[in-house]
Each structure stands twice: as C-alpha cells, then as structure tokens.
C-alpha cells in the first residue's frame, strides 16, 4: 500500500530528481532529489520523536523551504500537518494545541521559552525551526538523520491535514482534510490551469494558509514544476524575479500594489503565462486596469479552507471580471434558499453549496457542527452567497453572516460596495449592518477615500441608484479597512467598532 498523497504529489517529480524544485531570493537552489532526502531526514526525526500514523504535527514557524519540507515530511511519516498562523498569540496557540492534541509542536527558537509550558500541558514534544530553516533543534536533528525513509502507508480517506478556520463567528474550527481531498484538487488545478514541469511559480504567499500551502505548493509538486520561493510579497523582488517565472498566485492586495508601481507594464510581465487571484474578492476595476497595463487577464477562482478550490475562470476562454468562473471538474455546485435549502432560479441570490472529492471530512472533534454544515445528500453549506449568471459563471456576493436585514428586507453588501467603489475619490469600501432601533439593522458604509470627503459625496449619488432600504444611513471614513493575513476584510471588527452608532 502506498502513501496516497505523498506518492500522488511526487510521482512525476521524483522520476527526475535532478530537476529544480525551488530557488530562493539568495540564489540557493534545491532539486527534487534534495526534497526527497530532506523530507526523509525530517520524517526520521518525527518518527524518533514519537510521531505515529494519524498523529498531528503542529507548526508555527516562519516561511522557509525547510518549513515546506516539514509538510512533506509529516505526510511521509503518516501524520497530519497542522500549520498555524505566525501571528497567533500564546493564548491562541494554547487553544489550538489543547484542541488538536498534537504529538509534536514545532515553533521558532525565539518562542521556545514562551510556548514550552503550553506544549507540555498539551502533551506535545517540542522542536524548533528558525527563520533561515537551518537553525533550531529540528534542523540540527535532521542533519544527523538518515536520508532514506519508507513512506508510511496511508489511504485516500486518511487524514492529511487540519487547518483551523479564522473563528470570526465563534471559536476556531479545525477542518479535517484527507489525502484525497488534497490530491484530487491538486490534479484538477494542474489540468485546469495547464501546469507542466516547465512552469516556474513565483511563490510569495504564506504557507500556513490553504492558498500558499495547498493551492500553490501542491499544484507545483504534482506537475513537477519549480518555484521561486520568496519569504513574502515584496515589489522589488517581484519585479526582479518575474522575468524568470511563468506563473504567480496572489491575493487582490498584491495586484493593487503592483498597479501602483510604474514598473508594471507589458514588458515586465512578458514571460508570464498566468496570474491567479483568490482568498478575497478581486475588484472588477483591478481586473480591468491590470489587463490594460499588461495585456494579462487575471484568473480569479473561489475556494475555502474546508473545500480547497471549488471554481475557476477558464484558462482558455473568457475570464470574466467580477466572477469566479465555473465549478471545477468533479465539483458540484448549487445555489439554494437560506431557509428551505431548495435550489433558487438561475440569476437569483442564494447560499452556495458544494459537493465533491475536494470537500473536507468535517470539523475536528465537532460532530454536531459538522452535521449541521452538511445536507443529507452530502452537499456542504459554504455560508457564501452567490448567483449563477445566464452564461453559467458563478458570482460571489458576500457571506451569509454579512447579509444585512434592514426593515425586514435583505440587503447584500456587495451590490452597494460596487456602486460606492465607482464614485470619484473612493479607494475602496465595506458595507455592514449595525443595530438600529427602528430597522433592526442600519446599513453603514465604511469608506477609504483618496482625500477628505463629506458623507453627502457618497450618499447623494446612491439615492437614484438604490432602493431606499438599501441606501446607507451613515458613511464612516477610515484610513484603511481591517484585513486578515490573506487580505479579507474583517467586517466583524467593523461591526464591533460601529455597534453603537444608532443607539
């Protein structure tokens, strides 16, 4: 029996171990043979530390090739990888380790003293791995370990990873992803986005999130491609490395920052065949402006922690701005009414539900929550609101929890945000609902402006374009919208900030 994910991801790559796997900004390069040997060494360390098949390996370290190798090594050792945001505080780490009960916790050497007690309480052995990837106890032990390790047999349904959701609507939930969840999605994306071993991915995403860890890395591995592995998104590095890359995966803020740089032009992107965007909505204006400057149409797609990728605009065909394309091969998608769960007519807004080999197994130690999020026929209730247009393109209009109900009427924030964003002087906006004594919730626009503006400059143009119940009752101006590490606007923080506005 094989290790379903390890062998599935690396079958092509390990047949040519001399091929490049990754190159760093420093120029240091790693082959697939290096990846094989390094992951074997780390798998030996994990096994020697007591990791058994099915155990969890929790990791909170800075981005490095060795940190990525640790993911491969964990899968190779038959365990489940649990990446943790580097911004999490000790109290948050306490929750995750207590909940997941990992057998090993890997952290930065500088955090060892702070987190040692938390790891001990959770029953996890502690190892360390530094920012360079070459310092820390894990790195030291790996250098002395054997460079051979027979992958532990694991099947398609075995647990490969646990990723915790952001927890904006309650305590964080651990989404359990199987070997087949990850492998099937990587293979579909390889085909959908035409990845080959000749591709070079410009990797500038964090690797504690599904986008940088699974979408970017797994697609690269399964196709035997290579990557330019950057520690973070840096404009100087991006423009210096882009002539040597063929693809880039990013979030909308990457592209808005590139557009603000005069170096972005057709010549700078001439070597690129594909730019993709995800993790947060890409404004249609950004999509259009990027094409005007470069001749490249960004490919937007839609996914989430629990499902990997669900949809994608076509690689060959119209990449329609403001949409996330069509369901991926093997993924079923439907739009249903929030109350009755019945499909709505095409073109009407409803809740997006998906089903397929990409959809997770459930929430760790939360059987009741898992049962509540799945329909009897196996469809997962995403909580995202969307429509399917007349040509079959999926359009995301917001989150179910972001829906505003004012005076008994449903108000979809994205409709209003798009109109506000079109107004002169507006950089971007977020529309929220906050408690209102007469209407239940009052619509509030939170706006980032290029220069000081009056509320009337926003409200007046909307009067003739929106029904009265949709019009914001107030507009608040801020320097920037609060975002999480993947660029998503944290509307829960805005709702908290303006909760007393109408009281």
Descriptive overview:
The chain is an alpha/beta fold and about 500 residues long. The protein has 15 helices and 25 strands. The protein has helices at about 5-10, 30-50, 65-75, 90-100, 110-120, 135-145, 180-190, 210-225, 235-240, 250-260, 285-295, 365-370, 415-420, 455-465, 490-495, and strands at about 20-25, 30, 55-60, 80-85, 105, 125-130, 160-165, 175-180, 200-205, 225-230, 245-250, 275, 300-305, 310, 325, 330-335, 350-355, 360-365, 380-390, 395-400, 405, 410, 425-435, 440-450, 475. The strands form 6 sheets. Strands 2-1-10-9-11-12-13-14-15 form a 9-stranded mixed sheet. The chain has a 4-stranded parallel sheet with strand order 4-3-5-6, with helices on both faces. Strands 16-17-19-20 form a 4-stranded antiparallel sheet.
Any key phrases for this structure?
25% strand; 30% helix; four-stranded parallel sheet; single chain; 503 residues; alpha/beta; 25 strands; 15 helices
The strand count comes to 25
Query: Biggest sheet, strands in spatial order?
Result: 2-1-10-9-11-12-13-14-15
The proportion of residues in beta strands is 15-25%
Distance between the termini: 64 Å
Largest sheet: 9 strands, mixed
Radius of gyration: 23 Å
Which blocks of ≥5 consecutive residues have pLDDT under 50? none
Q: Which whole number gives the mean pLDDT?
A: 93
User: What is the 3D form?
Assistant: globular
The helix/strand class is alpha/beta
The percentage helix is: 25-40%
Oligomer: single chain
């Amino acid at each position: 029996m094989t290790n379903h994910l390890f062998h599935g991801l690396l079958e092509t790559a390990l047949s040519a171990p001399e091929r490049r796997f990754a190159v760093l900004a420093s120029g240091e390069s790693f082959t697939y043979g290096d990846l094989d040997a390094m992951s074997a060494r780390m798998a030996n360390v994990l096994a020697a530390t007591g990791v058994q098949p099915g155990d969890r390996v929790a990791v909170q370290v800075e981005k490095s090739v060795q940190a990525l190798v640790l993911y491969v090594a964990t899968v190779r050792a038959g365990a489940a990888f649990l990446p943790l945001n580097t911004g999490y505080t000790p109290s948050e780490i306490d929750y995750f380790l207590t909940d997941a009960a990992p057998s090993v916790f890997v952290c930065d050497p500088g955090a060892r003293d702070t987190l040692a007690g938390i790891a001990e309480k959770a029953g996890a052995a502690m190892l360390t791995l530094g920012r360079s990837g070459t310092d820390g106890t894990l790195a030291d032990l790996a250098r002395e370990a054997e460079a051979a390790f027979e992958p532990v047999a694991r099947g398609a349904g075995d647990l490969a990873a646990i990723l915790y959701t952001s927890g904006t609507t309650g305590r964080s939930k651990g989404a359990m992803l199987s070997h087949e969840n990850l492998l099937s999605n990587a293979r579909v994306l390889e085909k959908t986005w035409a990845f080959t071993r000749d591709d070079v991915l410009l990797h500038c995403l964090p690797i504690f999130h599904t986008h940088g860890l699974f979408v970017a890395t797994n697609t690269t591995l399964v196709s035997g491609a290579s990557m330019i592995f950057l520690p973070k998104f840096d404009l100087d590095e991006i423009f210096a490395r882009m002539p040597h890359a063929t693809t880039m995966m990013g979030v909308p803020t990457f592209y808005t920052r590139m557009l603000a740089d005069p170096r972005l032009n057709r010549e700078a992107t001439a070597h690129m065949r594909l730019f993709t965007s995800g993790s947060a909505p890409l404004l249609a204006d950004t999509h259009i402006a990027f094409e005007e400057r470069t001749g490249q149409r960004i490919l937007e797609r839609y996914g989430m922690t629990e499902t990997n990728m669900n949809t994608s605009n076509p690689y060959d065909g119209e990449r329609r701005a403001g949409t996330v394309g069509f369901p991926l091969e093997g993924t079923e998608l439907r739009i249903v009414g929030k109350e009755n769960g019945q499909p709505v007519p095409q073109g009407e807004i409803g809740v997006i539900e998906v089903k397929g080999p990409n959809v997770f197994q459930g929430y760790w130690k939360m059987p009741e929550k898992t049962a509540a999020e799945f329909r009897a026929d196996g469809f997962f209730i995403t909580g995202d609101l969307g429509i399917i247009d007349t040509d079959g393109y999926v359009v995301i209009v917001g989150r179910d929890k972001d829906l505003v109900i004012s005076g008994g009427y449903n108000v979809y924030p994205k409709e209003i945000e798009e109109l506000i964003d079109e107004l002169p002087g507006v950089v971007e906006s977020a529309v929220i609902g906050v408690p209102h004594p007469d209407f239940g919730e009052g619509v509030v626009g939170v706006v980032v402006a290029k220069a000081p503006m009056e509320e009337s400059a926003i409200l007046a143009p909307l009067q003739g374009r929106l029904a009265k119940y949709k019009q914001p009752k107030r507009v608040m101006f801020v320097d920037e919208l609060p975002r999480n590490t993947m660029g998503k606007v944290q509307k829960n923080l805005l709702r908290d900030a303006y909760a007393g506005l109408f009281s």
